[in-house]
Give the backbone structure.
Amino acid sequence: MSTEPDAPTPSPVETAPTVPVTLSRASNRIAGLDLARFVALIGMMAAHVWMLDPADGSSTLILGLVQGRAAALFAVLAGVGIVLSSKRYLGRGRGESARCGHRGHAAAARALFVRGAAVAVVGLTLGLLSTQVAIILVSYGVLFCVMIPLLRLGSVTLAVIAVLGAIVSPLLSFWARSTWSLIGPYGGNPSWIGLTDPMVAVDVLLTGVYPVATWFVYVVAGMAVGRLVLDTRDADSSRGSPDIRALAGRLSIAGAGMAVVAWALSALAMGPLGGIDAVISAQGELPSSETREQMAVIMSASAYGVVPLESPWLLASSVAHSGATLDLFHTGGSALVVIGIGLLIGTRLRHRGVAMLAPVLAAGAAPLTIYSLHVVVQSLTVNAIFADGVADVGERWMVSSLPIWLLHIAGALFVGLLLWALQRRGPLESLISWLARLAGGPRRSADHGSE
């Protein structure tokens, strides 16, 4: 989740028509990325408040579309945000990061550490709520800190690390959990209560819904994208936006290819190559048309952050939220598609387009604030409805339904409109950016005026 330290979102009259990829010269926000953040927000909202049909309790079609993908998009965008926020100290790209020196890297490291710690604090506080939402923020905070050694790396190196991590980390996770019989998750959302329990750390790092051991892949991939965006935008700034459009197209095509190939390989491995039969046999049952159909239904649902230990064949699946290699490639590829499309739309925005999308862009620029408000509202709603233990049939739509999802989206747009009208970023984003600047110190002198 980005907490990129930008200036307030500008009004349409301040928008520079010659550089349409950004919302304005003053804020230097990249509109396409804020669009992608908004898509991630409403996707996660759908997974939280429109996951079941209130009539019969069956999974909704939109849940199948967003589960695993929306959270992955958030994580990739977090990596993009790390690069954009660190340019204050490391330079804007084209080799500047490699030449920034120890002082610049130390400042960027301090700032990123404080960002991570602050995001984790928000997550631990939200974890005190009684909610069915698996809150991602503590893992995000740890991931921010884990990325510190990678701050000066270029896009190619980061991409290689992401690919190798997607291949190796699920295998290591499976081996470690099998060796030490770590089933997990061992608890609910991490919170201030029970924080000293070592199993909380085990969940965050290895066995939880968003384990750092595999989710770092998304963030590193996002850092590679962020590096490409900075390099391309610097080369592009005097010519409008053709290079950004080309980058957007490449990201979309590469992401779509990754997603499709990963899905196809999973279907091949679990079908014709015998993966589903092996999983069924590992559970002590005989493969049959009935058991295969049942297993297919199970595998179409979401895992709980890690590859189940029943069979190594599950490492070849693309089950959502499993953290298997093909899941990482599929959901990571989907994230690249959304980011590419967002960047492409961003290059086409002019005065009227920015004005029309102002609430969307402002909400996308405040993902931590919007996400936190969403979790609080969802928790209060569910606890009010289930105050007596059981909800009436007529009340179930208030927990999971299309109208509730639309209400959460409307709330996000209202907050975005308010922030845009006040020319402010989200309060949590502003606070964390201030803390990070305090920790990092003054920006590099060579970079004054660049934001």
